[in-house]
């Protein structure tokens, strides 16, 4: 008997569909992988008001969930000795003058680990204003820090532009390299990088924003954060997320191995504000950021998590090595419902896991 066999999942999916219907959400795709069980998919709504029903191959923007892909790709490059976690910004972009960082340089591991030490979301306003990448990087050259790199958690998007520029200088693109090294080897059927790739997908979920309570309108796909594809440029379907979750759970060891996952999910900087997330706080005992992943201690079970949010889309992904379970939820709407349903999933998953473990332990006791 496994935890994934518990009946709670049926009730859970009914409830999130009921909540989505009540809030008149455009649509979502749910994925759950678990030991010795077929992948569980659930779908709700359409790609747009008069669009197609959302299914396994409907493509969504992943927004910042893209950072989990970038982290794995970087770990792969480090393992292949093509990059080092200790590469500095100056190593990666020698034509830029990051003079402020000579004594304690910002390293690749600080970019991926959200510990550059600078004001959170530095110059996101320039991304949203569609400033060209080199101009934003020039602003970063002169930015003053809040703390030394590697000491404090300061979430960033603009610093991921360093990787975009790095690969351009190598006469290639980040999109081509991550496709060649991650997406194609994993045989993801519909995953891609960039705005053009999203819109060229056979079926893709159109973005929606709220104009009033429970009222949603379709909005255009913005290309600003796509210019920082290592931070927020990947597109994927439920079918792709099934593969990604299985890769995180080490089902593709030739591409993503245990050493890589262990390095990415090692707690590195404490994320105090995460402890106060409304839907999570009663169960969270600790929260850190690793490399491309948040690490939550939820009732003494470690959950590796990341969320994403850009105009018109929300996405959550999480997995537990201990439970062997992975979860993803993709929405084509900017709804906070995702916060509630993700936290609820893990609360119920852990409760079911412990209930079954207790039952199995009782069954294993020798008769008097």
Verbal overview:
The structure is a single chain. With 368 residues, this protein is of the alpha+beta class. It has a single domain (3-51, 66-202, 222-364), classed as 3-Layer(aba) Sandwich (Beta-lactamase), CATH 3.40.710.10. Helix content is 34%, strand content 18%. It contains 13 helices and 13 strands. The protein has an eight-stranded antiparallel beta sheet with strand order 2-1-13-12-11-10-9-8, with helices on both faces. Strands 3-7-4 form a three-stranded antiparallel beta sheet. A two-stranded antiparallel ribbon has the order 5-6. 46% of the residues are buried.
Which features does this protein show?
single chain; about 375 residues; alpha+beta; Beta-lactamase; 8-stranded antiparallel sheet; 3-stranded antiparallel sheet; 13 helices; about 35% helix; disordered N terminus
List the helices and strands and how they pair.
Elements: H1 8-22, E1 27-33, E2 40-45, E3 60-61, H2 66-79, H3 89-92, H4 108-112, H5 124-128, H6 133-141, H7 161-169, H8 174-183, E4 192-193, H9 195-199, E5 208-212, E6 215-218, H10 229-232, E7 234-236, H11 238-248, H12 258-264, E8 269-270, E9 284-289, E10 294-298, E11 301-310, E12 313-320, E13 325-331, H13 337-364
Antiparallel strand pairs: 1-2, 1-13, 3-7, 4-7, 5-6, 8-9, 9-10, 10-11, 11-12, 12-13
Helix pairs in contact: 1-13, 2-12
